[in-house]
């Protein structure tokens, strides 16, 4: 374990040195996607023979449906394709033996499988994944929105409930843009960029990797290196999950929905200035969207949009409580009778 930690520290120093070199955003995307592809191919090459697993489908009209799939290759999305077009188009997430499972993540054992849509009786988990996915899409749009000579650093985005009124993506722009304030036309342009990605119906491909692989992918981002370390420490097995959407690679602390096409009525509503940090001026981009299966009347949408323009305040995580001091028996010498009472 000590050797493993030392290697991690050494590798982090190497990638920190790489972070000093400025690279165009398009080149960074290409490098990160190449690391993702190489690791994905390595993991797939570990499957040297086809093993069959039995997947018992659960859900309305599916009781008793048994699918025979390929271990480590077939995904919940593969299972949906054996059912109906409705299941393919409507499924956002899956439950595998009761555990939340991304739709494009390979199945590893015989299991029971439920395909989740936005019309579940309890849509809490699907809504969380949707909001998280909308924020990921916003980050992808922002990373592509500026000229090549400007750097952009996506920060760890806050996990927010849907009732917050807007999904958020925190970022730091090039210092040359500190005085930049987005106009209404700029926000509309960002919205159009997002809608193009939605129209492409791109999958969010998950890949569970070791921290070393994730650090290599984000070798030119100190911020993402720190996030890799944080998420690895939070993970029960010490791994992190990368997602790829087109050529955009991101970290996520929870599952994303299956594809960009599940987003609808998507708008970028505001970019607020926050405080200055070590890297520069922090900003919070915000947006609003509804799932494809749910639509709002234009009057309701206008009210929701107005709310989504206001800055979403994010409370810092509560600090761990300090352990109470160990009781110490006081002697008359330590506490003289003349000492004042506390």
From TrEMBL:
Give the start-end ranges of region Disordered.
Answer: 312-342
Query: InterPro entries from the xrefs?
Result: Beta-grasp_dom_sf, Pro-tRNA_synthetase, Thr/Ala-tRNA-synth_IIc_edit
Compartments (UniProt record):
Mitochondrion
Gene Ontology molecular function: nucleotide binding; RNA binding
- Ribonucleoprotein in keyword set: yes
- CDD domains from the entry? TGS_ThrRS
Gene Ontology CC entries for this record: mitochondrion; ribonucleoprotein complex; ribosome
Provide the alphabetized UniProt keywords: Mitochondrion, Ribonucleoprotein, Ribosomal protein
- Composition skew (Pro residues), residue ranges: 315-327
Q: Which Gene3D superfamilies match?
A: 3.10.20.30, Threonyl-trna Synthetase, Chain A, domain 2
Q: Which family does it belong to?
A: Belongs to the mitochondrion-specific ribosomal protein mL39 family.
Protein's name according to its UniProt entry: Large ribosomal subunit protein mL39
Native source organism of the sequence: Albula goreensis
């Amino acid at each position: 374990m000590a050797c493993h930690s030392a290697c991690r520290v050494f590798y982090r120093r190497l990638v920190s040195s790489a972070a000093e070199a400025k690279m165009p955003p398009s080149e960074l995307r290409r490098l990160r996607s190449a690391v993702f592809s190489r690791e994905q191919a390595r993991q797939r090459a570990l499957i040297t023979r086809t093993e069959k697993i039995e997947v018992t489908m659960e859900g309305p009209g599916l009781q008793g449906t048994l699918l025979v799939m390929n271990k480590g290759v077939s995904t919940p999305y593969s299972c949906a394709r054996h059912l109906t077009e409705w299941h393919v188009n409507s499924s956002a997430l899956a439950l595998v033996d009761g555990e939340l499972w991304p739709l494009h993540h390979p199945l590893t054992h015989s299991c029971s499988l439920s395909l989740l849509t936005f019309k579940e009786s309890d849509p809490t988990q699907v809504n969380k994944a949707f909001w998280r996915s909308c924020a990921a899409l916003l980050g992808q749009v922002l990373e592509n929105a500026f000229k090549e000579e400007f750097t952009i650093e996506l920060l760890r985005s806050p996990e927010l409930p849907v009732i917050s009124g807007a999904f958020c993506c925190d970022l730091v722009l090039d210092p040359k843009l500190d005085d930049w304030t987005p106009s209404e036309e700029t926000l509309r342009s960002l919205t159009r960029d997002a809608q193009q990605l939605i129209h492409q119906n791109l999958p969010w491909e998950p890949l569970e990797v070791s921290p070393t692989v994730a650090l290599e992918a984000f070798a030119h981002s100190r911020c993402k290196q720190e996030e890799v370390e944080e998420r690895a420490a939070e993970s029960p097995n010490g791994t992190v999950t990368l997602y790829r959407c087109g050529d955009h690679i991101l970290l996520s602390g929870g599952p994303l929905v299956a594809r960009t096409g599940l987003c609808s009525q998507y708008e970028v509503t505001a970019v607020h200035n926050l405080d200055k940090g070590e890297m520069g001026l922090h900003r919070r981009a915000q947006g609003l969207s509804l799932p494809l299966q749910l639509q709002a009347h234009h009057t309701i949408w206008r009210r929701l949009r107005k709310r989504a323009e206001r800055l979403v305040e994010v409370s810092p995580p509560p600090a761990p409580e300090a352990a109470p001091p160990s009781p110490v028996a006081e002697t008359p010498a330590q506490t003289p009778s003349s000492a004042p009472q506390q």
